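Why do we care about 3D structure at all? Because function follows from shape, and shape follows, mostly, from sequence. That is the central idea of this module. The next example makes it concrete: a single protein chain, its amino acid sequence, and then its structure expressed as tokens.
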Amino acid sequence: MKGLLLAVALLAAVPAAVSQEQDEMKPGLVAEFFNIGKQMEEFPAIPAERKPDYRRIDGQINYEETAESFPGTQMSDHFYVRWTGKLKIPRDGKMTFFTESDDGSRLWIDGKLVVDNGGLHAMEEKSGELDLKAGDHDLKIELFENDGDVGCKLSWESSTMTKEILPESALLHKKDKDLDK
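And the structure:
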């Protein structure tokens, strides 16, 4: 009898744990900005112990090219941004992802490099394809800006979706006590 009660208690706790984890997910990606302070030709190596100069939540990555500071920051040259979170895939299938950036950008999904748009260049778009199962996947996108104009966009398409900027509903992050008030 005790074994049966324990099994029932464990099964009842599983949906609560899953529900709590989903409650901790919020729309958007965590954006971490690092002032590099010197010329760059490629992505900088950021030591794991280095804290970002600025953090925020970005609902989308849809920043037009500008000669001004990166939107919402004081940074205009010699900086690096890392966005992290989860990507919600609506259905199984092959997806094409695009980064358009000035200067370099890279996109990883589940630790796999999908788009490499590195180097010094004006706004330039590159793409990559990946077969994905429906559900949540780890996502990381990076941008570095040497000098001059800066911009960055992240888009997707599939056989059932026309190309569009990834919507906020597809980008999630784990609730962050410092950013989600």
